[in-house]
Amino acid sequence: MYTMDDIVREGHPILRQVADAVTLPPSEEDQKTLNKMMEYLVNSQDDNIAQQCQLRPGIGLAAPQIAVSKRMLAVYLVDGKEQLHQYAMINPRIISHSIEKSYLESGEGCLSVDRDVPGYVPRYARIKVRAYDINGQEFTIKLRGLPSIAVQHELDHLDGIMFYDHINADDPFAVPDNARSVDR
Ligand code: SB7
Ligand code: NI
């Protein structure tokens, strides 16, 4: 299983690379990696396991964060309506998005960033994402709210972009144009 020791931190060049597309159907090795990424997220949200294994809780993880420069991501979160959002994606892409933006009231953090970076991170409020699942089956989903923000944070990792790249340097808490806030 992955632990914090497997997660690369800021300064590692892989976090700034554009990750490679995964060849389809996914190899057994890529499937294993993606399963372990999801396992990390689930474990990290289990208080006992997280404490036992010193896991920082995470709602998402992108393959470059475990030093694999491939286009795979995992998201695991329960939203405000107690709805589970669990997605393992291969070669994901945004096929359409709202004009409206959203941002997390509490700002964002990252398992690869060992410091607080305050400020609003503008994201699209709604996205339609097309990807391949762990078996190589194509699927399309529409997301809004926190799941939309989480998937965009992970998609950025696949393109070498960090959340703080989006923060207004002059005024970190300036409300982005055409944006509404989202509570965790
Ligand atoms: C806040 C946190 C995350 C996404 C969006 C808002 C995920 C944090 C964990 N990660 O570093 C995943 O890349
Ligand atoms: Ni991150």
For this structure, the quaternary state is single chain
Secondary-structure element pattern, one letter each: HHEEEEEEEHE
- What's the count of strands? 8
Largest sheet: 5 strands, antiparallel
Provide the CATH superfamily.
Peptide deformylase
Determine the strand fraction and express it as a percent band: 25-35%
User: What is the total number of structural domains?
Assistant: 1
Second-tier CATH architecture: Alpha-Beta Complex
Output mean pLDDT.
98
How many angstroms does the end-to-end distance come to? 27 Å
Query: Which residue ranges are poorly predicted, with pLDDT under 50 across at least 5 consecutive positions?
Result: none
Helix amount: 10-25%
User: Can you list the ligands bound to this structure?
Assistant: [hydroxy(3-phenylpropyl)amino]methanol, nickel (II) ion
User: Within the largest sheet, what's the order of strands?
Assistant: 1-2-3-6-7
Please state the structural category. alpha+beta
Radius of gyration: 16 Å
Task: Describe the global form.
Answer: globular
- Total DSSP helices: 3
Tell me, what is the CATH class?
Alpha Beta
CATH topology: Peptide Deformylase
Describe this structure in words.
With 184 residues, this protein is an alpha+beta fold. The chain has one domain: Peptide deformylase (Peptide Deformylase, Alpha-Beta Complex), CATH 3.90.45. 21% of the residues lie in helices and 26% in strands. The chain contains three helices and eight strands. Strands 1-2-3-6-7 form a five-stranded antiparallel sheet. Strands 5-4-8 form a three-stranded mixed sheet, covered by helices on one side. Strand 2 and strand 3 form a beta hairpin. The longest helix has 17 residues. The radius of gyration is 16 Å and the shape is globular. The model has no long low-confidence stretch (mean pLDDT 98). It binds [hydroxy(3-phenylpropyl)amino]methanol (SB7) and nickel (II) ion. The site of [hydroxy(3-phenylpropyl)amino]methanol (SB7) has 17 residues, from strand 1 and helix 3. The site of nickel (II) ion has 5 residues, from helix 3.
